[in-house]
Structures are given as C-alpha cells and as structure tokens.
Design a protein that fits this description.
- By secondary structure, the protein is an alpha+beta fold.
- It has 2 domains: about 90 residues; about 230 residues, BirA Bifunctional Protein, domain 2.
- It is built from 11 helices and 9 strands.
- The strands form 2 sheets. Strands 1-4-5-9-8-7-6 form a 7-stranded mixed sheet, with helices on both faces. Strands 2-3 form a two-stranded antiparallel sheet.
- Helix 1 runs antiparallel to helix 2 and helix 1 runs parallel beside helix 4.
- About 25% of the residues are buried.
- Its cofactor is Mg(2+).
- It catalyses: tRNA(Phe) + L-phenylalanine + ATP = L-phenylalanyl-tRNA(Phe) + AMP + diphosphate + H(+).
- InterPro entries: aa-tRNA-synth_II, aa-tRNA-synth_II/BPL/LPL, Phe-tRNA-synth_IIc_asu, Phe-tRNA_ligase_II_N, Phe_tRNA_ligase_alpha1_bac, Phenylalanyl-tRNA_Synthase, tRNA-bd_arm.
C-alpha cells in the first residue's frame, strides 16, 4: 500500500507538470483527488491492515494528498499568469492611433430661451410654479372669468377628454391653482412655464402643441406702471438694451385692462421693414391687470389686492431672437438645425 501511494504521487505530479492549460490541470485533480480516484480506492483497503499500520498509512495518504494538491495549486498559478500575459499580448492597444470623435450635445434653443427667461424672473424675486397638463375645465376657464358658454372660449379650440377634463390651452390654470392655495394671502409672484395644447393646423407659425410662460404678481398697490416696468426689463434683457416697447389696448377675459406688448424691430431699428411689415414694431406677448373676478374666485379681496399677469410663447421669442423662420424646426429633431446653436451664447 505504501508503494502504491508513492507511485500515485509520482504519476500525479508528472501529469500536473505536463498540463498545458487549466482544463487539463482540473482533469488531473478530479482523476487523483476525486471520490472515485485511485487514492480513495487505496484507502478503502486500510481495513485489512493491522492496528499498528493504519495510523502510519493514514498519515502517508494525507501527505500524498497534500503534496498533489500543492503541486496543482502551484501549476494553476503559473497557467493563470501565462493566460493573462497571452491575453495582454493579443489585446494590445496601439496608443498612436487617433481617438474616436465624441459628439457633445447642446441645449435645444427652446430650452435655452426658457432657462434664460426663468433666470431673469428668478433674479427679480419670482418663483417657478408648475401644474398638470390634463386640466379641469374649472381651472382652465371658469376660474379665469371664462364661464361655460363664454364666446371667448372659441379663441382657444380645445382638446377635451371629458366634459370636465381637457388638455390645458394655456398655463393660466397654474396661476389660479397657486392663488387658491394662498387662501387670499399675498404676495404672489410666480412664473409658470409648460406645454399647452390647442386644436390648430401645424404650419410655419402655428402648432397644436407649444410652450408658454406666464407670469403673475398679486399684492397690495400693484399698478399698471409695475407691469410696464417689468416688461421693459424683460425686453431689454432678452433682445438688447436698445429695444423699446409699446403697449396697445387689447382684450383678455382674465385681465382688465388688457394690453398687447410690441418691441421695436431689431432688423430695421423701428424704421419699417418686411419683418415688421413696415410698422417698426413686432408683437411679442399679452398682458394686463388681473380681473377682480379672477381675484375673488381665488379667494382674494379685490378691494385690497391688485395684480398683473402676462403670457408669452418661448417659440416666438426664440424665432425673433435668433431669426428662426419656421416653428416646426423646433420639433423635427434635425441635427443640421440644432447644431447651429451649439456655440451660440444665449444672452
């Protein structure tokens, strides 16, 4: 039995040295150290030995098993190291090759204009409020002095989901919800950017989905002069310090009095050209003093509080600011259009 164990040790050690990969080495381990291996078979015959020989053979068997295990582990480390070195050699990288170009993204022109407008009004003490795009008829119309059947509703062809739910046609519902949450306590000073939806035919200047930013200020002693001063600062920051503004009378159900704001044409400097249709002015947004009915429906005392509101379309502002001639460019995902704004500074 002793000779057999030493013979198995020599055979196993020789086969370990002859192994050229990890698979062969594992086969040797299973063949000699497995439950069905020759060493196990030899140990099964220990019952025939005398009581004096059994401890001696048991110690020898453990020694043989340990030597074979150690030889396998040593060989395994060598084979793994050789395999890693082989992979490194085969997968070597030529550091002299030119790198692959990485295309860096830029802000969409609409996103940049919206962020510029938000930054401007945040610097003036406003906060940004948001609301649901699927809106209740009450907040979209009734709370804004547009009861059911009001003819002014025809100005905003709407996508109705049910009789009381629709896709909001403007971001004014955010103003109504915000005033309602304040429970009649001022001041309120917010802007409300977001998507709006109207049943309109898509063309160069119209879209069934577009962005809108509205502003609202409610406090004691708010006057039309405060509105004009705010809009004047906005125009000069967005379009240049040399821009002039004018306010023209208009009508909106939720403001009284209401105005349209024009800015002097950047192209002709107010002299008249094809862009401004010879007038020297370009319409930019609508505004006015908050109607007392709107204040009362939101829980504000219209004898104590007054306010002003304004609404603008970022698409139109971006078109005027950067000379974009078709609103559909914003949504076509044409990289030839979008990359034009990669290096521009949005001031």
């Amino acid at each position: 039995m002793e000779e057999r164990l030493k013979q198995l040790q020599q055979e196993a050690t020789a086969k370990v040295e002859q192994s050229v990969d990890l698979k062969q080495l594992n086969d040797v381990r299973v063949a000699y150290l497995g439950k069905k291996g020759p060493i196990t078979e030899v140990l099964k015959g220990m019952g025939k030995l005398s009581a004096e020989e059994r401890p001696k053979m048991g110690a020898l068997a453990n020694e043989v098993r340990d030597d074979i295990t150690k030889a396998i582990e040593t060989k395994q480390q060598l084979l793994e190291t050789a395999e890693i070195e082989k992979k490194l050699t085969e997968e070597s990288i030529d550091v002299t090759l030119p790198g692959r170009p990485v295309n860096s993204g830029t802000h969409h022109p609409l996103t940049s204009v919206i962020e510029d407008i938000e930054d401007l009004f945040l610097s003036m003490g406003y906060t940004v409020e948001e609301g649901p795009e699927v809106e209740k008829d009450y907040y979209n119309f009734e709370a804004l002095n547009l009861p059911k059947g009001h003819p002014a509703r025809d100005m905003q062809d709407s996508f109705y989901i049910t009789e009381d739910l629709l896709l909001r046609t403007h971001t004014s519902p955010v103003q109504a919800r915000t005033m309602e949450r304040r429970e009649g306590k001022g001041p309120v000073k917010i802007i409300c950017p977001g998507k709006v939806y109207r049943r309109d035919n898509d063309d160069a200047t119209h879209s069934h989905q577009f962005m809108q930013i509205e502003g609202l200020v409610v406090d004691e002693n708010i006057r039309m002069s405060d509105l004009k001063g705010t809009l004047n600062v906005f125009a000069k920051r967005m379009f240049g310090e040399d821009r002039e503004i004018r306010l023209r009378p208009s009508f909106f159900p939720f403001t009284e009095p209401s105005v349209e704001m024009d800015i002097s044409c950047k192209i002709c400097g107010g002299k008249g050209c094809s862009v401004c249709k010879g007038t020297g002015w370009i319409e930019i947004l609508g505004a006015g003093m908050v109607h007392p009915n709107v204040l009362e429906m939101a829980g504000f005392d219209s004898k104590k509080y007054t306010g002003f509101a304004f609404g603008m379309g970022p698409e139109r502002i971006a078109m005027l600011k950067y000379g974009i001639d078709d609103i559909r460019h914003y949504y076509a995902n044409d990289q030839r259009f979008l990359t034009q704004f990669g290096q521009k500074e949005f001031k």
